[in-house]
Design brief:
Largest sheet: 6 strands, mixed
Number of helices: 8
Distance between the termini: 69 Å
CATH topology of the largest domain: Deoxyribonuclease I, Chain A
Strand order of the largest sheet: 3-4-2-1-12-11
Radius of gyration: 22 Å
Structural class: alpha+beta
CATH superfamily of the largest domain: Endonuclease/exonuclease/phosphatase
Number of domains: 2
Low-confidence stretches: none
Strand content: 15-25%
Length: about 325
C-alpha cells in the first residue's frame, strides 16, 4: 500500500493507527526484558514517559475522531497496568511520626565534579543524621574532610572512577562491605548497622552493556538477599542505576521493600531534566516508616539528591 494513493482521510487513518501500534509495541517491549537486555534499558526505564505519551495520544485522537479512542484507551490501559502493578506492590508505607526521626541524605557526587562547597552547603542545610555519598573518589575524600568535625562516625571507601562510597553518621554503627566477588574495587554497597536499623548505601553499575546489565541485576538481587537475611528494619538508599519499573527491581519487590516517594514521577537523572529524566536514585525501606523527596539543588552533580525521614520500628 502506497501512501500517495490514499486520500487525505486515508493517510490520516494510516498515520494515527500506525502511531498507536508503534506506541503499543514500545510499551509492551519491556515485557521481553528477561531475555533482551535492551528492552529493559530503553523501554522499562521510561515507563512513565510512555504513559504520558499514551495519554497525549488519547487526547489528540479524541479531538480527531471517536473511532480512534478505543485503540488509544487500550494503549493507556496497557501502560497503567504495567506501571500501576509495580507501584501498588511497592507503595509507600504509612509514615507515623512517633518519636524522633532519622534523617538520611543520599547523593551521587559525580566523580568529575569539583564543586565541594555546594555539596557541603547541601549537607549543612539538610542537617542529616546519616549522609551517604556515591562516586566517592580520593579527591572527594579531601574535599569533604571537614565533615569529620560534624559526624563523629564514618566509613570511607574512596575509589578512582565511579564506585567509591562513604557514609557519615552522628551515631556509631558497624559496617559491612558488599562486593561483586572478592575484589574490593567491585564495591556495590556498604551496610551501616545501627542499633535499631540497617542503612545500606548502594551503587550498582550502570546497565549500559549486556554484561553490565547482568551485573546490575545480580548486584540488586544481592542487596535484596542481604535485607531478607538480616531480618532487621532496613533503609536502602543510593543510585541503583535502575527505575522501580525495571526487571532488576523484582527481587526488591519480593524482599518486601517499599518506595518512599509519594509521587510516581520523581526524575533524579539527569538532574533537572523533566523530559528525559528517570528515577534511579531511591530510598527503599522495610519494616520502617519513612517519607523521602528528591532535591535537585545545584551541586555540580548530574543526579538529584534524596532526602528522607525515617522512623524505625521501636524507635
Amino acid at each position: 500500500m502506497r501512501l500517495d494513493r490514499l486520500s487525505a482521510r486515508g493517510r490520516m487513518k494510516f498515520i494515527i493507527w500506525g502511531g498507536l501500534i508503534l506506541l503499543a509495541l514500545a510499551s509492551a517491549t519491556g515485557l521481553a526484558a528477561n531475555w533482551i537486555w535492551e528492552a529493559d534499558l530503553y523501554f522499562n526505564h521510561f515507563r512513565v514517559q510512555l504513559l504520558c505519551a499514551s495519554l497525549i495520544a488519547l487526547l489528540v485522537v479524541s479531538l480527531i475522531g471517536r473511532r480512534f479512542v478505543p485503540g488509544a484507551l487500550a494503549v493507556v490501559a496497557l501502560n497503567v497496568a504495567l506501571l500501576g502493578g509495580r507501584m501498588i506492590a511497592m507503595s509507600p508505607p504509612d509514615a507515623h511520626a512517633d518519636g524522633a526521626s532519622l534523617r538520611i541524605l543520599s547523593l551521587n557526587l559525580l566523580a568529575e565534579n569539583k564543586d565541594g562547597e555546594a555539596v557541603l552547603s547541601l549537607i549543612t542545610q539538610t542537617d542529616a543524621d546519616v549522609v551517604v555519598a556515591l562516586e566517592f573518589t580520593p579527591d572527594w575524600a579531601q574535599a569533604l574532610a571537614s565533615l569529620d568535625e560534624t559526624y563523629s562516625h564514618s566509613v570511607q571507601r574512596p575509589q578512582k572512577g565511579y564506585h567509591g562510597i562513604a557514609i557519615w553518621a552522628k551515631k556509631p554503627f558497624d559496617v559491612e562491605a558488599m562486593t561483586l566477588g572478592k575484589r574490593t574495587e567491585n564495591l556495590v554497597g556498604l551496610r551501616a548497622r545501627f542499633a535499631d536499623v540497617d542503612v545500606y548505601g548502594v551503587h550498582p553499575k550502570a546497565p549500559i552493556t549486556e554484561r553490565m546489565w547482568r551485573g546490575n541485576r545480580y548486584s540488586i538481587s544481592m542487596i535484596a538477599d542481604a535485607v531478607t537475611t538480616s531480618g532487621r528494619p532496613s533503609v536502602v538508599v543510593g543510585d541503583f542505576n535502575a527505575t522501580a519499573w525495571s526487571r532488576a527491581f523484582k527481587p526488591l519487590v519480593q524482599a518486601g521493600l517499599k518506595r518512599t516517594y509519594l509521587s510516581p514521577f520523581n526524575p533524579t537523572f539527569p538532574a533537572g531534566d523533566w523530559l528525559r529524566g528517570i528515577e534511579i536514585d531511591h530510598m527503599l525501606v522495610k519494616d520502617v516508616a519513612a517519607r523521602s523527596r528528591a532535591t535537585c539543588v545545584e551541586t555540580g552533580s548530574d543526579h538529584c539528591a534524596v532526602i528522607g525521614e525515617v522512623w524505625p520500628v521501636g524507635r
